[in-house]
What does this fold into?
Amino acid sequence: MTTSTVAVLSGLILLLPLAGALLNALVGWRLSRRVVNAIGTGSILAAFLVACVMLAQVVGAPDGAKSASAHLWQWLDLGTGGLRVGVDVTLDPLSAVMLMVITGVGLLIHVYSVGYMEHDRGIARFFSYMNLFIFSMLVLVLAADLLILIIGWALVALSSYLLIGFWYERPSAVVAARKAFITQVAGDVALVIAAFLIVVHIGTLSMPGIFAAAPSFASGGLLITVVCSLLAIGAFAKSAQFPLHTWLPDAMEGPTPVSALIHAATMVTAGVYLIARFHPLFDRAPVAQGMVACVGIGTAVMAGVIALSQVDIKRVIAYSTMSQIGLMIFAVGIGAYSAGMFHLATHAVFKALLFMAAGNVIHALHDEQDIRLMGGLSTNLRRTELCFLSGTFALAGIPLFAGFFSKEGLLGFGLTNGPGAFPWVLYLVGVGINVLTGLYAFRLWATVFRGEPQTARVYAAREAPRVMLVPVAILALLSAFLGLILGVWSLVIHDNFLIGVFARFLSPVFTTPASGPLAVDLSTGTAILAGIVGTLGSLLGAGLAARIWLQRNPDPSAVTARLPRALPQLAYNKFYFDEIYDALLVRPLVALARAARRVVEPRFMNSGVQTVSDACSELGAWVRDYQTGLIRDYASYMIAAAGVFVVATLVLVSR
Amino acid sequence: MNVPWLTVVLLLPLAAAALLQVIPRTAVTLLKALTVTATAAAAAIVWTLVATMGGSPHSAGPLSFHYSEIHQWIPVIGATYHVGLDGISAWILALNAGVFVLGAILVSRRSTDRLKLFCGLLLLTETMTAGVLLSVDLLLFYLFWEGMLIPLYFLLANYGNENRGRATVKFIVYTVAGSLLMLVSILSLFFAHGVASGNLSFDLTQLLGGGLSKQPLVIPWVNITTFTPEQWAFLGFAAAFAIKIPLVPFHTWLPDLYESAPVAVLVFFAGLVSKLGAYSFIRFALTLFPDAVNTFKWVLAALAVVSIIYGALMALSQRDIKRIVAYSSLSHLGFIALGIFTLNVNGINGAVIQIVNHGIIIAALFIIVDIIEQRTGTRDRHELAGLERRMPWLYAFFLVATLAGLGMPGMNSFAGEFSIMLGAFQLHPAYAVLAGLGVVLACWYMLRLHQGVMHDPPQPRTEAVGDIRPAQGLVLLPLVGLMVFLGVFPGPVGDVTQLSVKQTTALAHGYASTAGPNFSGLGPVSPGGQP
It folds into this structure.
């Protein structure tokens, strides 16, 4: 894997989606729908092929040479003592995995969009934004300089903003888009300040440079803790983690393929990638790691509870996404980087699948999203249901489905390698999350597809066209067999089941002992026991859900109705986070701004200046009155002035 | 061939203005053509000079220039015609040339009363602002600095909306007051230098390091110790520049003036004239008064941060979209000022880069606001909505300008703001954190502006408007293109600025040699000055 290969391949994979975005943006309105679709999906298909070549390059590279960087051009160079930033890219196992997820899942979602957006007149704009998103995401994962990563990070937020607000004549979509973007910008600022701390301490923003110099941070010291906490805040904003999570449910205002691509598979997992990428720093900041792990697992619980109380099909999946990302954040917080990344990959598959299958349902019911008005869809949407079920099994972690391997892997790691004295506590919370996941996953499936139709519209529902079914089916197969295939493969080549092959592939990146191949830990008795208990938790949740909701007229609020009233109320209103932010941040700022305009500016800033300037004008006007142009007036002024002068002189002399 | 290009740049618009006077006022096409040609020719020369100036300066000394010309002017007091172009002035001069071309094009596309007067004043302003950017002699600088106000006064007082009279008087009175303080400072420098060295000079390169006493001045009888003479002189300069930039609380001329001025004036007024304060601060205040600058940098940087946040809050509370852009400009000029007062390489480079970037952005924003006002007849945010479907091209241009305006990474302003904030962080982390709050607020008001105008269901006034004409698109295209291009490739700007900024930074820290201090790494403690 030579530098020039990396440069060429990276250039190619970045330029393809960018070219697609520009083409559709500039001339898309003149082209036929068919050509627009071809440009939009074709560019991603080409990028996917390049990504496959890049993966092959990494796999084929000899051990110890799995990572290569290339310098594309110098972004800024302010000389001695100044900022120096190059547009550099890195190809290594971690970025290769991300490339595959982004372009692979992205490609399927683009194909699906052709069908989903069939009747929308803004199709060129849509594909232009989608391609821009893929481009931004690729910048983010290929970047080898923190500043370039920040650029990709922000571009991702931009394309998310554009896509959430895609239906721009809907006021709710417009507000949701802005909220998402501002939250992201707050995260960006945290990243930027982390970058300042790093560059002031180390003197470079180049990521290989930062990682090489990581030992110069005192382990567990204040500086590294602050740096990592700021990085984590950036990650939380992007990954919708507590307390920066409120934008994600609102982001469901975007078209469903957008939710699948951005708010499930790729963008929201970028926070996990960021922490995994900066693991040499996080490994030296146990306090920040602990914070990350707690926020992750806390968000997982909170979002799981909320998911159970929501009745909008997309919002249920959105909260389940938040919950699953919480698990990934937990994993990278405890140093289980490979496990977190594995869950990221499988989650991208099954969550994109769930969103797209939900999209089929919404499409079939003409934009109905309320699960209380569904039910009984299995007769008309048989194929969609099968796919949805595959995703539900994977999400709930039913054995042998993809999610099972990744989730049990990270929980097991948490038990055996977790931080300090708390692994048992965190693990038990994890098992609780398993139960919760099983509950809300099967609740959704049962209320949407099973039971009796709740409205007449269900009878008229028609199965989605092939262009929307095939991508979903491919993902369904992957979510059913991906874990199994990888597991058997690792059994064959490494005689280790579970996530061995994936962890081994990533091991050149995560070289620190705490994050090495997991197989070692997972073969112990404790780990196996942990896996069994965790699986039992998942099955318990699924079984309970089946008992509660597998009936003719399931009540979506069956569980929440039994709890004390305050709790479901709290959960349904998303714990009132929107209101809290509104009261704590938005309103005071608006009030401050209004006070500035009404009081500070006119009374304090302007009054004096305005008075002086008006006085000048008035003085001029007053003096002008004496400029009559008449000799006799001027003569009298002279005589008067002379008189004053004489008198004044006499008075002064006489003293 | 040894052509005095800097003089050519100075005299070309002046000559064109003179030539205009022999053209009858009815020959409208000829008037327009001459104005556009003259500004374009000046731009071509300047851009060629900047593009070919290369890395290292040609003249020697602690403050050296890539191009310079020096002639005797008033020998008896040692005043010289000394003009020079270095890495700091280069890109700003290029911006200067560009915004005047833009102004000329805009005025030629609109039927304007008293067109001949307008064109003449525009060309005269260009000579004056170029003079401010090129002067190395303080007296010459002062001449251009004050001379600039004459054509500007007539432009602002004669063209624009009905509130222009009051706004213009406020601006002129305010600016002249500041300038007079600066004149006192220039004269005291001149005399102190004359007494100390025995030779009279207004030349910046001669006056470096001052010569003013650094002993605190004691007021007789009451025995109150005040600032040193050097500090007093610095404050005179600072007052003039702070009013011109402007910094809160010296800003109140800005929103009224921007609101009343016509767009053809605004592109060069907001795009360039307001940056001359920032430029002059770097050129004169930092190099002439190193000790005073280091004493006052904390306060000045704090004022800059206040400007950032105050401007953002004011922008947030406006209904008039032109005033929103005006206050956003105040906020962004605060960033530029913050960069200067950091006194380090990153901050000052960022400030110079941002002067150029912001000139491009603000010109585009004012043009867009003007188009919207022309089409819909209103600038009230509450009456505007849903333009995206009607004006898809304007939507796209406005989107890019908005993103550049809010400091989006990947757009031009990010390079400048990142460097500035890094510099501020090196001065003290609190400045960078507070400036970061300004970034978030900018995101809020800029997005609300863009979305409010473009999205949501259309309002009565926005029902039946058509998209921009191709010619308007051609005016906006280069601006928007530059926003993206300079975001992806900010390197060329930095390459030109960094050597000259290094010299200025060294001078600002009191090291009068090109070798400069050793900035080892990017350590938080900048050499010299930090208590």
